[in-house]
Design a protein that fits this description.
Layout: E1 2-7, H1 11-22, E2 27-31, H2 38-43, H3 45-61, H4 78-102, E3 106-109, E4 112-116, E5 119-122, E6 129-136, E7 140-142, E8 155-156, H5 158-161, E9 170-174, H6 178-189, E10 193-198, H7 209-222, E11 225-228, E12 232-238, E13 241-246, E14 251-254, E15 256-259, E16 263-265, H8 272-275, E17 279-280, E18 283-284, E19 297-299, H9 310-324, E20 339-341, E21 346-351, H10 354-359, E22 364-370, H11 375-380, E23 386-392, E24 398-405, H12 412-420, H13 440-449
Parallel strand pairs: 1-2, 1-6, 2-3, 6-19, 8-15, 9-10, 9-15, 10-11
Antiparallel strand pairs: 4-5, 5-6, 7-16, 12-13, 13-14, 17-18, 20-21, 21-24, 22-23, 23-24
Length: 456
Protein backbone atom coordinates (compact mmCIF):
# COMPACT_ATOMS: atom_id res chain seq x y z
CA UNK A 1 0.00 0.00 0.00
CA UNK A 2 1.24 3.47 -0.92
CA UNK A 3 1.21 6.38 1.48
CA UNK A 4 -0.51 8.57 -1.11
CA UNK A 5 -2.27 8.20 -4.45
CA UNK A 6 -2.90 11.20 -6.67
CA UNK A 7 -5.58 11.06 -9.36
CA UNK A 8 -4.73 13.43 -12.20
CA UNK A 9 -1.37 14.58 -13.54
CA UNK A 10 -2.07 18.26 -14.18
CA UNK A 11 -0.42 21.25 -12.47
CA UNK A 12 -2.18 20.39 -9.22
CA UNK A 13 -1.69 16.64 -9.29
CA UNK A 14 1.94 16.41 -10.30
CA UNK A 15 2.96 19.18 -7.89
CA UNK A 16 1.11 17.41 -5.05
CA UNK A 17 2.87 14.17 -5.91
CA UNK A 18 6.30 15.81 -5.93
CA UNK A 19 5.76 17.58 -2.62
CA UNK A 20 4.51 14.35 -1.04
CA UNK A 21 7.59 12.50 -2.29
CA UNK A 22 9.82 15.26 -0.91
CA UNK A 23 8.15 14.72 2.46
CA UNK A 24 9.06 11.04 2.37
CA UNK A 25 5.72 9.57 1.29
CA UNK A 26 5.59 6.66 -1.15
CA UNK A 27 3.47 8.13 -3.93
CA UNK A 28 1.67 6.89 -7.02
CA UNK A 29 0.11 9.17 -9.64
CA UNK A 30 -2.72 7.85 -11.82
CA UNK A 31 -3.32 9.71 -15.10
CA UNK A 32 -5.61 8.62 -17.93
CA UNK A 33 -3.89 10.65 -20.68
CA UNK A 34 -0.69 9.45 -22.39
CA UNK A 35 1.25 12.55 -21.28
CA UNK A 36 1.44 14.33 -17.96
CA UNK A 37 0.70 18.00 -17.39
CA UNK A 38 -3.07 18.02 -17.74
CA UNK A 39 -5.00 20.50 -19.85
CA UNK A 40 -2.65 23.35 -18.91
CA UNK A 41 0.54 21.88 -20.33
CA UNK A 42 -1.04 19.93 -23.17
CA UNK A 43 -4.08 21.87 -24.37
CA UNK A 44 -4.21 25.15 -22.49
CA UNK A 45 -1.73 27.51 -20.86
CA UNK A 46 1.47 26.41 -22.54
CA UNK A 47 0.51 25.91 -26.21
CA UNK A 48 -1.67 29.02 -26.19
CA UNK A 49 1.21 31.14 -24.86
CA UNK A 50 3.38 29.78 -27.64
CA UNK A 51 0.82 30.88 -30.23
CA UNK A 52 0.48 34.25 -28.53
CA UNK A 53 4.23 34.76 -28.78
CA UNK A 54 4.08 33.98 -32.50
CA UNK A 55 1.31 36.55 -32.87
CA UNK A 56 3.36 39.16 -31.00
CA UNK A 57 6.38 38.55 -33.23
CA UNK A 58 4.23 38.80 -36.36
CA UNK A 59 2.79 42.16 -35.31
CA UNK A 60 6.26 43.41 -34.40
CA UNK A 61 7.70 42.37 -37.77
CA UNK A 62 4.85 44.11 -39.56
CA UNK A 63 5.70 47.27 -37.60
CA UNK A 64 9.45 47.23 -38.14
CA UNK A 65 9.51 50.47 -40.14
CA UNK A 66 8.73 52.31 -36.93
CA UNK A 67 12.09 51.06 -35.63
CA UNK A 68 13.92 52.07 -38.81
CA UNK A 69 14.12 48.53 -40.18
CA UNK A 70 13.01 47.60 -43.68
CA UNK A 71 12.20 44.11 -44.91
CA UNK A 72 10.61 42.48 -47.90
CA UNK A 73 7.17 40.91 -47.98
CA UNK A 74 6.25 39.24 -44.70
CA UNK A 75 4.64 35.81 -44.94
CA UNK A 76 3.15 34.11 -41.90
CA UNK A 77 2.70 30.35 -41.75
CA UNK A 78 0.18 29.57 -39.03
CA UNK A 79 0.70 25.83 -39.45
CA UNK A 80 4.34 26.36 -38.49
CA UNK A 81 3.24 28.35 -35.44
CA UNK A 82 0.94 25.53 -34.40
CA UNK A 83 3.73 23.01 -34.90
CA UNK A 84 6.08 25.10 -32.74
CA UNK A 85 3.45 25.17 -30.00
CA UNK A 86 3.31 21.37 -30.00
CA UNK A 87 7.10 21.20 -29.78
CA UNK A 88 6.96 23.44 -26.70
CA UNK A 89 4.31 21.15 -25.23
CA UNK A 90 6.39 18.04 -25.93
CA UNK A 91 9.44 19.48 -24.21
CA UNK A 92 7.42 20.63 -21.20
CA UNK A 93 5.55 17.37 -20.65
CA UNK A 94 8.77 15.39 -20.95
CA UNK A 95 10.15 17.62 -18.21
CA UNK A 96 7.26 16.65 -15.92
CA UNK A 97 7.82 12.96 -16.66
CA UNK A 98 11.49 13.43 -15.71
CA UNK A 99 10.45 14.99 -12.41
CA UNK A 100 8.33 11.94 -11.64
CA UNK A 101 11.30 9.65 -12.16
CA UNK A 102 13.65 11.94 -10.25
CA UNK A 103 11.35 11.94 -7.22
CA UNK A 104 10.66 8.21 -7.31
CA UNK A 105 6.95 8.62 -8.08
CA UNK A 106 5.21 5.68 -9.71
CA UNK A 107 3.02 6.70 -12.67
CA UNK A 108 0.14 4.55 -13.83
CA UNK A 109 -1.74 5.21 -17.07
CA UNK A 110 -5.38 4.59 -16.31
CA UNK A 111 -8.70 6.17 -15.45
CA UNK A 112 -9.23 5.86 -11.70
CA UNK A 113 -12.41 5.70 -9.64
CA UNK A 114 -12.87 5.64 -5.88
CA UNK A 115 -13.82 2.22 -4.58
CA UNK A 116 -13.34 3.35 -0.97
CA UNK A 117 -11.42 6.07 0.86
CA UNK A 118 -8.23 4.01 0.43
CA UNK A 119 -8.83 2.10 -2.80
CA UNK A 120 -8.88 3.22 -6.45
CA UNK A 121 -10.25 1.00 -9.19
CA UNK A 122 -8.39 1.47 -12.50
CA UNK A 123 -9.66 0.72 -16.00
CA UNK A 124 -6.36 -0.68 -17.30
CA UNK A 125 -7.15 -4.22 -16.14
CA UNK A 126 -4.57 -4.17 -13.36
CA UNK A 127 -4.96 -4.45 -9.62
CA UNK A 128 -6.63 -1.76 -7.57
CA UNK A 129 -4.44 1.04 -6.26
CA UNK A 130 -4.33 1.07 -2.46
CA UNK A 131 -3.14 4.09 -0.51
CA UNK A 132 -3.43 5.45 2.99
CA UNK A 133 -4.62 8.77 1.56
CA UNK A 134 -5.87 10.02 -1.83
CA UNK A 135 -5.75 13.39 -3.58
CA UNK A 136 -8.25 14.03 -6.39
CA UNK A 137 -6.96 16.42 -9.06
CA UNK A 138 -9.24 15.63 -11.98
CA UNK A 139 -9.44 19.13 -13.45
CA UNK A 140 -12.23 20.49 -15.64
CA UNK A 141 -13.47 20.52 -19.22
CA UNK A 142 -14.90 23.15 -21.57
CA UNK A 143 -18.38 24.38 -20.71
CA UNK A 144 -21.14 24.29 -23.32
CA UNK A 145 -24.07 26.69 -23.68
CA UNK A 146 -27.68 26.04 -24.72
CA UNK A 147 -28.32 26.33 -28.43
CA UNK A 148 -24.69 25.79 -29.37
CA UNK A 149 -23.56 22.35 -30.50
CA UNK A 150 -19.79 21.86 -30.69
CA UNK A 151 -18.98 19.81 -33.79
CA UNK A 152 -15.20 20.12 -33.68
CA UNK A 153 -15.08 21.63 -37.17
CA UNK A 154 -17.12 24.81 -37.52
CA UNK A 155 -17.95 25.17 -33.84
CA UNK A 156 -14.99 24.39 -31.60
CA UNK A 157 -13.57 24.74 -28.10
CA UNK A 158 -10.08 25.84 -27.11
CA UNK A 159 -8.92 22.22 -27.47
CA UNK A 160 -9.68 22.17 -31.20
CA UNK A 161 -8.41 25.74 -31.54
CA UNK A 162 -4.98 24.57 -30.45
CA UNK A 163 -5.02 21.92 -33.18
CA UNK A 164 -6.05 24.40 -35.89
CA UNK A 165 -3.54 24.74 -38.70
CA UNK A 166 -5.31 27.30 -40.89
CA UNK A 167 -6.64 30.70 -39.91
CA UNK A 168 -10.33 31.24 -40.75
CA UNK A 169 -11.16 34.43 -42.70
CA UNK A 170 -13.92 35.26 -40.19
CA UNK A 171 -14.25 34.07 -36.60
CA UNK A 172 -16.74 34.64 -33.82
CA UNK A 173 -15.59 34.00 -30.27
CA UNK A 174 -18.31 33.39 -27.71
CA UNK A 175 -16.93 34.56 -24.37
CA UNK A 176 -14.92 37.67 -23.57
CA UNK A 177 -12.91 36.28 -20.67
CA UNK A 178 -9.20 35.49 -20.69
CA UNK A 179 -9.39 32.58 -23.15
CA UNK A 180 -11.62 34.46 -25.57
CA UNK A 181 -9.47 37.59 -25.53
CA UNK A 182 -6.23 35.66 -25.96
CA UNK A 183 -7.45 33.77 -29.01
CA UNK A 184 -9.02 36.94 -30.42
CA UNK A 185 -5.57 38.49 -30.45
CA UNK A 186 -3.97 35.44 -32.07
CA UNK A 187 -6.57 35.15 -34.83
CA UNK A 188 -6.63 38.87 -35.57
CA UNK A 189 -2.83 39.01 -35.72
CA UNK A 190 -2.90 36.43 -38.50
CA UNK A 191 -5.52 38.34 -40.48
CA UNK A 192 -8.82 36.87 -39.31
CA UNK A 193 -11.80 39.21 -38.94
CA UNK A 194 -12.73 38.58 -35.30
CA UNK A 195 -15.83 39.41 -33.31
CA UNK A 196 -15.97 38.67 -29.58
CA UNK A 197 -19.41 38.15 -28.04
CA UNK A 198 -19.72 38.64 -24.29
CA UNK A 199 -22.95 38.35 -22.31
CA UNK A 200 -21.78 40.80 -19.62
CA UNK A 201 -21.32 44.54 -20.29
CA UNK A 202 -17.57 44.48 -20.95
CA UNK A 203 -14.62 42.31 -21.94
CA UNK A 204 -12.75 40.69 -19.05
CA UNK A 205 -15.75 41.39 -16.80
CA UNK A 206 -13.97 40.10 -13.68
CA UNK A 207 -11.19 42.66 -14.02
CA UNK A 208 -11.16 46.28 -12.87
CA UNK A 209 -13.49 48.36 -15.04
CA UNK A 210 -10.76 50.77 -16.16
CA UNK A 211 -8.64 47.84 -17.31
CA UNK A 212 -11.52 46.44 -19.35
CA UNK A 213 -12.09 49.80 -21.04
CA UNK A 214 -8.39 50.12 -21.89
CA UNK A 215 -8.38 46.63 -23.41
CA UNK A 216 -11.47 47.40 -25.48
CA UNK A 217 -9.77 50.51 -26.86
CA UNK A 218 -6.70 48.44 -27.73
CA UNK A 219 -8.85 45.83 -29.47
CA UNK A 220 -10.59 48.61 -31.40
CA UNK A 221 -7.20 49.72 -32.73
CA UNK A 222 -6.40 46.13 -33.68
CA UNK A 223 -9.65 45.78 -35.60
CA UNK A 224 -11.18 43.25 -33.17
CA UNK A 225 -14.92 43.83 -33.00
CA UNK A 226 -17.07 43.04 -29.97
CA UNK A 227 -20.67 42.61 -28.94
CA UNK A 228 -20.93 43.11 -25.19
CA UNK A 229 -24.12 42.69 -23.21
CA UNK A 230 -25.15 40.25 -25.91
CA UNK A 231 -26.56 36.78 -25.39
CA UNK A 232 -26.17 33.98 -27.92
CA UNK A 233 -29.50 32.48 -28.94
CA UNK A 234 -28.06 29.75 -31.13
CA UNK A 235 -25.53 28.76 -33.76
CA UNK A 236 -26.20 27.27 -37.17
CA UNK A 237 -23.31 25.58 -38.95
CA UNK A 238 -22.95 24.11 -42.42
CA UNK A 239 -20.48 23.36 -45.16
CA UNK A 240 -19.92 26.99 -46.07
CA UNK A 241 -19.71 28.50 -42.62
CA UNK A 242 -21.68 29.29 -39.50
CA UNK A 243 -24.17 31.85 -38.26
CA UNK A 244 -24.25 33.06 -34.66
CA UNK A 245 -27.67 34.38 -33.65
CA UNK A 246 -27.68 37.06 -30.96
CA UNK A 247 -30.50 38.50 -28.90
CA UNK A 248 -32.24 41.33 -30.71
CA UNK A 249 -32.14 39.52 -34.02
CA UNK A 250 -28.53 40.22 -35.04
CA UNK A 251 -26.82 37.40 -36.95
CA UNK A 252 -23.04 37.12 -37.31
CA UNK A 253 -21.78 35.22 -40.35
CA UNK A 254 -18.41 33.54 -39.94
CA UNK A 255 -16.22 30.60 -40.91
CA UNK A 256 -15.44 29.45 -37.38
CA UNK A 257 -17.06 29.74 -33.94
CA UNK A 258 -14.91 29.37 -30.83
CA UNK A 259 -16.85 28.65 -27.64
CA UNK A 260 -14.85 30.05 -24.72
CA UNK A 261 -17.33 30.41 -21.87
CA UNK A 262 -15.40 28.70 -19.10
CA UNK A 263 -15.18 25.17 -17.77
CA UNK A 264 -17.04 22.69 -15.59
CA UNK A 265 -15.37 20.40 -13.01
CA UNK A 266 -14.65 16.77 -13.81
CA UNK A 267 -16.49 15.09 -10.94
CA UNK A 268 -18.53 12.46 -12.79
CA UNK A 269 -17.82 8.74 -12.52
CA UNK A 270 -15.30 9.17 -9.71
CA UNK A 271 -17.27 7.20 -7.14
CA UNK A 272 -17.80 10.32 -5.04
CA UNK A 273 -21.38 9.59 -4.05
CA UNK A 274 -20.68 5.96 -3.19
CA UNK A 275 -17.80 6.89 -0.91
CA UNK A 276 -19.61 9.90 0.55
CA UNK A 277 -17.53 12.78 -0.84
CA UNK A 278 -19.68 15.91 -0.75
CA UNK A 279 -20.05 18.04 -3.89
CA UNK A 280 -21.69 21.35 -4.76
CA UNK A 281 -22.41 23.14 -8.01
CA UNK A 282 -18.84 24.47 -8.22
CA UNK A 283 -17.26 21.06 -7.63
CA UNK A 284 -15.96 18.96 -4.75
CA UNK A 285 -16.40 20.59 -1.33
CA UNK A 286 -13.13 21.05 0.60
CA UNK A 287 -11.85 22.89 3.66
CA UNK A 288 -8.79 25.16 3.95
CA UNK A 289 -6.46 22.14 3.96
CA UNK A 290 -8.18 20.74 0.84
CA UNK A 291 -9.80 17.94 2.86
CA UNK A 292 -13.08 16.57 1.55
CA UNK A 293 -15.95 15.30 3.70
CA UNK A 294 -14.29 11.86 3.78
CA UNK A 295 -11.20 11.55 6.05
CA UNK A 296 -8.06 10.81 4.07
CA UNK A 297 -9.49 12.04 0.76
CA UNK A 298 -8.39 15.45 -0.54
CA UNK A 299 -9.30 17.41 -3.69
CA UNK A 300 -7.50 20.26 -5.45
CA UNK A 301 -7.57 22.39 -8.57
CA UNK A 302 -10.40 22.98 -11.01
CA UNK A 303 -12.45 20.06 -9.68
CA UNK A 304 -13.06 22.03 -6.46
CA UNK A 305 -14.13 25.21 -8.24
CA UNK A 306 -12.80 28.75 -8.74
CA UNK A 307 -10.41 30.37 -9.07
CA UNK A 308 -9.77 28.09 -12.05
CA UNK A 309 -6.07 28.76 -12.55
CA UNK A 310 -3.11 26.42 -12.93
CA UNK A 311 -1.01 28.15 -10.27
CA UNK A 312 -3.91 27.94 -7.83
CA UNK A 313 -4.08 24.18 -8.43
CA UNK A 314 -0.34 23.90 -7.79
CA UNK A 315 -0.58 25.89 -4.56
CA UNK A 316 -3.50 23.72 -3.43
CA UNK A 317 -1.48 20.63 -4.33
CA UNK A 318 1.27 21.68 -1.93
CA UNK A 319 -1.28 22.35 0.83
CA UNK A 320 -2.98 18.98 0.34
CA UNK A 321 0.29 17.04 0.25
CA UNK A 322 1.54 18.72 3.42
CA UNK A 323 -1.77 18.10 5.17
CA UNK A 324 -1.65 14.44 4.12
CA UNK A 325 1.88 14.23 5.56
CA UNK A 326 0.66 15.62 8.86
CA UNK A 327 2.41 18.96 8.41
CA UNK A 328 0.95 22.31 9.40
CA UNK A 329 -0.25 24.03 6.24
CA UNK A 330 -0.45 27.69 5.24
CA UNK A 331 -3.87 29.12 4.49
CA UNK A 332 -4.15 30.25 0.87
CA UNK A 333 -5.29 33.82 0.26
CA UNK A 334 -7.61 33.48 -2.72
CA UNK A 335 -8.29 37.23 -2.88
CA UNK A 336 -4.62 37.98 -3.59
CA UNK A 337 -4.15 35.17 -6.10
CA UNK A 338 -2.53 36.56 -9.26
CA UNK A 339 -4.62 36.62 -12.43
CA UNK A 340 -3.18 37.01 -15.93
CA UNK A 341 -4.45 37.43 -19.48
CA UNK A 342 -1.79 37.18 -22.18
CA UNK A 343 -3.27 38.99 -25.15
CA UNK A 344 -1.62 42.25 -26.18
CA UNK A 345 -1.81 44.40 -24.19
CA UNK A 346 -1.39 41.94 -21.33
CA UNK A 347 -3.62 42.18 -18.26
CA UNK A 348 -2.48 41.28 -14.75
CA UNK A 349 -4.19 41.73 -11.42
CA UNK A 350 -4.40 40.65 -7.82
CA UNK A 351 -6.69 41.56 -4.97
CA UNK A 352 -9.82 43.70 -4.96
CA UNK A 353 -10.92 45.91 -7.84
CA UNK A 354 -11.64 49.53 -7.02
CA UNK A 355 -15.38 48.85 -7.11
CA UNK A 356 -15.12 45.83 -4.84
CA UNK A 357 -13.07 47.81 -2.34
CA UNK A 358 -15.50 50.74 -2.34
CA UNK A 359 -18.50 48.44 -2.06
CA UNK A 360 -16.95 46.97 1.10
CA UNK A 361 -17.09 50.40 2.74
CA UNK A 362 -13.33 50.90 2.98
CA UNK A 363 -11.77 54.36 2.71
CA UNK A 364 -10.27 53.80 -0.74
CA UNK A 365 -7.28 55.60 -2.20
CA UNK A 366 -6.22 54.90 -5.78
CA UNK A 367 -2.85 55.47 -7.40
CA UNK A 368 -2.24 55.22 -11.15
CA UNK A 369 0.86 55.41 -13.26
CA UNK A 370 0.49 55.39 -17.06
CA UNK A 371 3.21 53.77 -19.11
CA UNK A 372 3.25 56.95 -21.21
CA UNK A 373 5.26 58.34 -18.27
CA UNK A 374 7.70 55.41 -18.36
CA UNK A 375 10.99 56.00 -20.17
CA UNK A 376 11.55 52.25 -20.52
CA UNK A 377 8.12 51.76 -22.11
CA UNK A 378 8.87 54.44 -24.69
CA UNK A 379 12.31 52.98 -25.35
CA UNK A 380 10.71 49.57 -25.89
CA UNK A 381 8.21 51.09 -28.28
CA UNK A 382 5.00 50.35 -26.38
CA UNK A 383 3.91 52.96 -23.80
CA UNK A 384 0.25 51.92 -23.71
CA UNK A 385 -1.58 50.95 -20.53
CA UNK A 386 -1.10 51.68 -16.85
CA UNK A 387 -0.63 50.33 -13.34
CA UNK A 388 -3.42 50.97 -10.83
CA UNK A 389 -3.08 50.30 -7.11
CA UNK A 390 -6.00 50.26 -4.68
CA UNK A 391 -5.12 51.11 -1.08
CA UNK A 392 -6.96 51.31 2.24
CA UNK A 393 -6.62 55.01 2.99
CA UNK A 394 -6.86 54.50 6.75
CA UNK A 395 -4.32 51.70 7.18
CA UNK A 396 -2.17 51.93 4.05
CA UNK A 397 -2.94 48.27 3.28
CA UNK A 398 -2.60 47.36 -0.39
CA UNK A 399 -5.98 45.97 -1.40
CA UNK A 400 -5.45 45.32 -5.09
CA UNK A 401 -3.24 45.91 -8.11
CA UNK A 402 -4.48 46.10 -11.70
CA UNK A 403 -2.22 46.42 -14.71
CA UNK A 404 -2.55 46.53 -18.45
CA UNK A 405 0.36 46.94 -20.84
CA UNK A 406 3.41 45.24 -22.29
CA UNK A 407 4.70 42.31 -20.19
CA UNK A 408 2.75 43.37 -17.09
CA UNK A 409 2.21 39.72 -16.15
CA UNK A 410 5.88 39.71 -15.16
CA UNK A 411 5.31 42.61 -12.73
CA UNK A 412 2.80 40.83 -10.49
CA UNK A 413 4.95 38.96 -7.92
CA UNK A 414 5.95 42.08 -6.00
CA UNK A 415 2.31 43.08 -5.59
CA UNK A 416 1.31 39.58 -4.47
CA UNK A 417 4.05 39.44 -1.86
CA UNK A 418 3.56 42.96 -0.47
CA UNK A 419 0.08 42.37 1.01
CA UNK A 420 1.12 38.90 2.22
CA UNK A 421 4.05 40.42 4.12
CA UNK A 422 1.99 43.32 5.46
CA UNK A 423 3.89 45.97 3.50
CA UNK A 424 2.03 49.31 3.53
CA UNK A 425 1.82 51.50 0.47
CA UNK A 426 3.92 54.29 2.03
CA UNK A 427 6.72 51.80 2.71
CA UNK A 428 7.31 51.42 -1.03
CA UNK A 429 9.24 54.69 -0.85
CA UNK A 430 12.25 52.84 0.56
CA UNK A 431 12.16 50.09 -2.09
CA UNK A 432 14.63 51.00 -4.83
CA UNK A 433 13.60 49.83 -8.28
CA UNK A 434 16.15 49.62 -11.09
CA UNK A 435 15.98 52.35 -13.73
CA UNK A 436 14.93 52.19 -16.46
CA UNK A 437 12.51 49.29 -16.00
CA UNK A 438 8.80 48.74 -16.40
CA UNK A 439 8.71 47.66 -12.75
CA UNK A 440 9.20 51.28 -11.70
CA UNK A 441 5.57 51.81 -12.64
CA UNK A 442 4.51 49.56 -9.76
CA UNK A 443 6.33 51.72 -7.22
CA UNK A 444 5.12 54.97 -8.77
CA UNK A 445 1.48 53.87 -8.78
CA UNK A 446 1.70 52.68 -5.18
CA UNK A 447 3.29 55.95 -4.06
CA UNK A 448 0.64 57.92 -5.97
CA UNK A 449 -2.06 56.22 -3.91
CA UNK A 450 -0.65 57.80 -0.73
CA UNK A 451 0.21 61.18 -2.25
CA UNK A 452 3.96 60.59 -2.45
CA UNK A 453 4.43 60.21 -6.20
CA UNK A 454 7.54 61.84 -7.65
CA UNK A 455 7.68 60.82 -11.31
CA UNK A 456 4.12 61.76 -12.18
Amino acid sequence: MHDLAVVGGGPGGYVAAIRAAQLGMSTILVEKEPTLGGVCLNWGCIPSKSLLRNAEVLRLVNDLQRFGISTGEVRADYAAAQQRSRQVVDRTTKGVAFLMRKNGIEVRRARARLRSEQVLACDDGGDDVRAQQIILATGARARSIPGVSVDGRRVITSREMLELREIPPRAVIIGGGAIGCEFAYVLASYGSKVTVVEMLPRLLPQEDEEVSKELERAFDRQGIERRTGAGVQGVESGERGATVHLGGGEALECDLVLVAVGVVPNVEDLGLEEVGVATARAGIVVDEAMRTSVPGVYAIGDCVGPPLLAHVASAEGVVAAEAAAGRETARLDYVQMPRCTYCVPQVASTGYTEKQARDSGVDVKVGKFPFTASAKAHAAGDPSGFVKVVVNGASGEILGTHMIGAEVTELLPEMVMAPALGVRADEFERFVHAHPTLSEAVKHATMAAVGLAIDI
